[in-house]
Design a protein that fits this description.
mainly alpha; about 325 residues; 15 helices
Amino acid sequence: MDRDSDYLGKYRAISGKLKKRFLRKPNVAEAADEFGNLSKVLQNQECPSYAALFSLAKARCEHTLANHQAEVHSLVEAAHQFMDAEWSDRSLQCPSFEENLTAAINCYNHAVRVSIENKQPSVAATLCLQLGNCLMKLKKPAEAMGHYQKAAELQYQCPLDCLHSLGRVASCKIAIGDFDGALAVLTEMEYLVRERGITGSSGLPMGAFSDILATCEISRVLLLMLLQPTPQRIRPEHAQTLEKYTWESDETNPPTECITEEVFLLLQSVVMACQSRDLTSLKKLQADLWCHLSTEQNHILHLVLEHIAVPPQEASAP
């Protein structure tokens, strides 16, 4: 307790130096250095929440000096320290109101705002992604989703980065059970790939764009099998996607260009098995598809099997 009181006394002493006095201008740069040094000492002593307070004080000094990069750096340091304190509370199973997490989110949001004001959208997008990742580790996909969406908006001029952020938005929606929302995001991603990812005379996406398009195609088909929209409610672009997997491919209806023929045929079989509610065939197809799908896609396919296993009367009951 004495040690903590001593540091709080030092905090007050440094803050006192910043008060304006007659014919004397406060040395803000010196105060910023002192706050930063004490923050490092407290961090080394495993007092992250106290260290964060000194980092915030340093950020205020940097704001006064109009040193915006240092201000953002100090805010992010404070956010990391508050997040460390949150993890410490959770590991010790301490009851709390998540005040350290709230403080960390506020620090990140402030740093994002400063970066945007100073025309550094890439830095702001990176900070949004960092915060989203932290929230996902804390198993808060609903809260993380908005930060990933903001990152995607800031990255619109960088198509690949934007697509990766949108992919995380879709993952968050799947995690919270918003499958319609996930399907809409994946459809938006496909439009973006075809708009920004096609170069040359081939008319096909290349490299990473091709991989993203394949991932979107597979996930969309599986989500459509899970949602089972009626012909009256299905969107035209989704109906067009399913048509490729409903009938045998021919010259007028070729398979999709970004997935292998083996995966295409397996997905085609999944669609037909779902339409006939053939659970036995679906289980066999699940084993064949397992190695071709991501963890998230395998989870969706598992949900499809659970949905098909429920008799139609029970599935439609309120």
